[in-house]
Specification:
mainly alpha, globular, 486 residues
Length: 486
């Protein structure tokens, strides 16, 4: 095989892989990048150890996501590098899917779409972590690629399977998928192809249901169907209801993304050609359906936007911009380097970490201090830095502490069978029932409760009565207490 010829043939794909790796590699060694990712790691470890999702630990995310973490943790135990490399592969493969979708739809600038996604889904904030949005985007793009072909029933079945996987990684994509199906039905009605379309929509729906049934099956066999239904469907609905923002508050947070999405969809629709109307309609449906979920919740975190980046890129670079932009790989490499400021800074931190690992990140500093005091075998309550459980080979003390913020969400307690009904009851159970010997926090109190809250007042009283502070770092925001009364 001629290596030079292969390299030339796959130069774009090779470039995209190494660009993704370059941006994300220095973050392979961090203790935690985002609290959600740390929670996924803990949930994955629970699965790898033989527990069902939600049965041993609990999180407000669909279950398929946890299986990917479990697979990596089973094959490469306690490896941050393996988990973060999984993120590289998912982002890279999503970029390749964008290339294929562009080619399938006769769109220009497929490389810019793919490179744009690599940059936008890997830079800025917590996106260097492995997030639920990364997996959901990958599966949605797989489904769209099959959907665009629309030649055989098997393509619609595969579309349904992929769409089902996307929803089981990120529930709000269900709105985007419903929007795609509505467009497909309306378009068929106009063309008077109702019967064929209904058959294909039923096949697509069957594929989605098959994915759901396969994921639910272990719960059914174990007699824990209610736990599955409560955790996957009812708890997210209760969470959405609990946010309960008014129309003005929702618009204050989301107006800009609504304006952006509507403007892009309008311009793309006006610019669409006959041979790319399908991808314009599909991308518009996903973009508007997903932005609606941002509005309905009134919340936009940086990693939420990963869900809309591919479709903004498709519509802007593939449809609105009519001109083909040829970007040489050398120039593309320079752009990647110039934009990757966070990555370059992190490379510098990694070099320093080699000399003094304990000072690299606050989570590692916590573990270092615990080990130095021979407290790493103690019963520890991580109110923050909860990746420490995994580093030490432990589990959170209760389901409510799998993610640090869940302790402040008592309306979710009934969905994972906790007998305590309030945050204060749960906190008393932890501090007086389980009796941790060490407490670790980012603040001098409980971060997810107001300082004047009953929970923080109670926490302060217990700390004053039963604990003493053994370590405090106000720069890295670390507070560690040890129990003095047995």
């Amino acid at each position: 095989m001629n290596v030079k010829r292969v390299f030339h043939q796959y130069a774009v794909e090779i470039f995209l892989f190494f660009a993704t790796l370059f941006i994300r590699f220095p973050f392979f060694f961090r203790d935690y990048i985002d609290k959600d990712e740390s929670t996924f790691i803990l949930m994955g470890q629970s699965l790898a150890d033989g527990y069902l999702p939600y049965d041993h630990l609990w999180d407000l995310k669909p279950p398929l996501l946890f299986y990917f973490f479990a697979l990596v943790e089973k094959v490469f135990p306690h490896s941050f590098v393996a988990i973060r490399f999984m993120g590289v592969l998912v982002v890279f493969l999503s970029a390749i899917l964008l290339l294929k979708i562009a080619k399938q739809s006769n769109l220009k600038n497929g490389f810019l779409m793919a490179l744009g996604y690599v940059l936008l889904s890997s830079e800025f904030g917590s996106l260097q972590g492995v997030m639920s949005e990364h997996f959901a985007v990958f599966f949605l793009l797989v489904g769209i690629l099959f959907f665009l072909r629309q030649t055989t029933n098997i393509n619609f079945l595969l579309t349904g399977l992929a769409f089902g996987c996307a929803v089981l990684c990120k529930l709000n994509y269900a709105y985007a998928i419903v929007a795609i199906m509505l467009f497909f039905f309306v378009n068929a009605y106009r063309q008077r192809k109702i019967r064929q379309t209904l058959i294909r929509l039923l096949i697509l729906t069957a594929g989605m249901l098959a994915t759901l049934i396969l994921i639910a099956l272990p719960f059914v066999i174990s007699g824990k169907t209610n736990l599955f239904v409560n955790s996957v469907f009812l708890a997210p609905l209760e969470y959405a209801k609990a946010v309960n923002l008014g129309l003005t508050d929702k618009l204050r947070t989301t107006w800009w993304v609504i304006v952006l999405a509507v403007s892009i969809v309008y311009l793309a629709t006006k610019s669409a050609r006959e041979d790319n109307k399908l991808i314009v309609a599909v991308s518009s449906a996903v973009l508007l359906g997903t932005v609606y979920t941002f509005f309905s919740s009134g919340i936009i975190n940086g990693h939420y936007l990963v869900q809309v980046y591919p479709f903004i890129l498709i519509l802007v670079f593939g449809v609105i911009i009519q001109k083909s932009i040829r970007l040489k790989l050398g120039i593309a490499a320079l752009i990647v380097i110039l934009i990757s400021v966070e990555s370059i800074l992190e490379y510098g931190r990694v070099i320093k970490m080699i000399k003094n690992p304990a000072e690299y990140r606050a989570g590692f500093e916590v573990i270092h201090e615990l080990k130095k005091r021979k407290l790493d075998d103690s019963k520890i309550f991580f109110t923050d830095y909860h990746i420490g459980y995994w580093i030490l080979g432990r589990y959170p003390l209760t389901k409510s502490t799998t993610h640090p913020s869940n302790l402040a969400r008592p309306y979710l307690f009934p969905f994972y069978n906790e007998s305590r009904q309030t945050s204060l009851e749960e906190l008393k159970y932890i501090l007086e029932g389980i009796k941790p010997e060490v407490i670790v926090s980012e603040v001098d109190g409980l971060k997810y409760f107001p300082g004047s809250s009953t929970e923080n007042i109670y926490f302060g009283e217990i700390i004053k009565k039963d604990f003493r502070m053994i370590y405090k770092d106000t720069v890295d925001r670390i507070y560690i207490w040890e129990r003095v009364t047995k």
